[in-house]
């Protein structure tokens, strides 16, 4: 990725998060947002990003400094305990599965990839929401098995159920295909074919295929909003973000669509914005929204070294 596009990709997710934060958990149809707002659900000032971006920034920092999984957990802990990677040094939101994993690491001393909850009832979107930068690192990795291994390990830090792992596979493999020239429609076809074949060697993951299968169609963008659930359940979040990505003609439109779905608006907007930034690589994130983000000093400090390290030279 060129430096400008890589920067847009990262900022798109953060802008989507901040846009969705004030309306998180609201019921669909009871409100409408078309601009960046503040206060609302978490009573944070306009431009505040949440756990999605904080844990994504922790990953960015870790990838820039060649940290291992244990190092990444140190950063997650710094977020949860001391508000690192946040706009105002304040942690106002963390998912219970992510918090549980961080406690598993530091209280129970588990190995990093054993910290995630493997329960079927721990299939929230807390891994999906923080993995976009991995697509940058994996863009040039030609071996599917290697990409899946890395994706699974990063997912397992917080979420170990095969349904959450499959969600990460689908998202990152679609980004991979698109970064290597596929359209969204082509990516969905290619990824469905390659994963359904490869996962014969991982029957526990393949067994989860039917949960995602209905969404894996290029025509999802034509579905009515009533067919889209927007909860924090990883399958719902994946489907909702894909629907926004397929339907939107711009990053701006994807964010507005996602933020008005109700439910887990910040995470769906984060993922939809990241995905749309890859779908429309020549588009910029709405400049006024990016400008409204808080703490540009911190964002620059973390994002610019990552861009320098991973952008095409
Ligand atoms: Mg959040």
Textual characterization of the structure:
- With about 325 residues, the protein is mostly helical.
- The longest helix has 18 residues, at about 5-20.
- It has one domain (about 5-310): ADP-ribosylation/Crystallin J1 (ADP-ribosylglycohydrolase fold, Orthogonal Bundle).
- It is globular.
- Helix 2 (about 50-65) packs parallel to helix 5 (about 130-140) and helix 12 (about 250-260) runs antiparallel to helix 13 (about 265-280).
- The protein has helices spanning about 5-20, 50-65, 70-80, 95-105, 130-140, 145-155, 160-180, 185-200, 205, 210, 235-245, 250-260, 265-280, 285-290, 295-310.
- The protein has 15 helices and no strands.
- The chain binds magnesium ion (MG).
- InterPro entries: ADP-ribosylglycohydrolase (IPR050792), Ribosyl_crysJ1 (IPR005502), Ribosyl_crysJ1_sf (IPR036705).
- Keywords: Hydrolase.
Question: Main attributes?
Answer:
binds magnesium ion, 57% helix, Ribosyl_crysJ1, Ribosyl_crysJ1_sf, ADP-ribosylglycohydrolase
N-to-C span: 9 Å
Question: From the structure provided, what is the oligomeric state, counting identical versus distinct chains?
Answer: single chain
- According to DSSP, the number of beta strands is 0
Low-confidence stretches: none
Mind summarizing the main beta sheet? none
Indicate the structural class: mainly alpha
Could you give the order of the helices and strands? Answer: HHHHHHHHHHHHHHH
Bound molecules: magnesium ion
Number of domains: 1
Instruction: Provide the CATH top-level class.
Output: Mainly Alpha
> Helix content range of the residues, please?
55-70%
Q: What's the CATH topology name?
A: ADP-ribosylglycohydrolase fold
Mean pLDDT over the full residue set: 97
Number of helices: 15
The radius of gyration is 18 Å
Bulk shape: globular
Question: Proportion of β residues?
Answer: under 5%
Q: Tell me which CATH architecture applies here.
A: Orthogonal Bundle
CATH homologous superfamily annotation = ADP-ribosylation/Crystallin J1
């Amino acid at each position: 990725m060129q430096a400008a596009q890589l920067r847009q990709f990262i900022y798109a997710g953060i802008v989507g998060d901040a846009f969705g934060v004030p309306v998180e958990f609201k019921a669909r149809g009871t409100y409408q947002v078309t601009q960046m707002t503040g206060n609302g659900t978490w009573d944070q000032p306009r431009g505040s990003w949440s756990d999605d971006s904080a844990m994504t920034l922790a990953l960015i920092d870790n990838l820039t400094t060649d940290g291992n999984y244990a190092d990444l957990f140190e950063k997650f802990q710094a977020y949860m305990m001391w508000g690192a990677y946040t706009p105002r040094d304040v942690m106002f939101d963390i998912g219970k599965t992510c918090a549980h994993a961080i406690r598993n690491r530091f209280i129970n001393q588990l190995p990093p990839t054993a910290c995630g909850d493997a329960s079927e009832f721990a299939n929230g979107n807390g891994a999906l929401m923080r993995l976009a930068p991995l697509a940058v690192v994996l863009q040039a990795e030609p071996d599917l098995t290697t990409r899946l291994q890395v994706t699974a390990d990063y997912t397992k830090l917080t979420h170990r159920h095969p349904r959450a792992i499959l969600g990460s596979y689908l998202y990152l493999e679609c980004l991979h295909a698109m970064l290597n020239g596929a359209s969204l429609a082509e990516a969905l076809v290619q990824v469905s074919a390659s994963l359904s074949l490869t996962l014969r060697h991982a029957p526990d993951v393949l067994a989860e295929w039917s949960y995602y299968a209905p969404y894996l169609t290029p025509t999802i963008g034509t579905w009515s909003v009533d067919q889209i659930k927007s909860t924090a359940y990883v399958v719902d979040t994946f489907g909702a973000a894909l629907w926004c990505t397929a339907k939107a003609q711009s990053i701006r439109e994807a964010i507005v669509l996602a933020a008005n779905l109700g439910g887990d608006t910040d995470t769906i907007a984060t993922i939809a914005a990241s995905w749309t930034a890859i779908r429309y690589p020549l588009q910029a994130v709405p400049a006024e929204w990016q400008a409204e983000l808080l703490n540009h000093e911190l964002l620059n400090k973390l994002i610019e070294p990552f861009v320098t390290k991973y952008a095409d030279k």
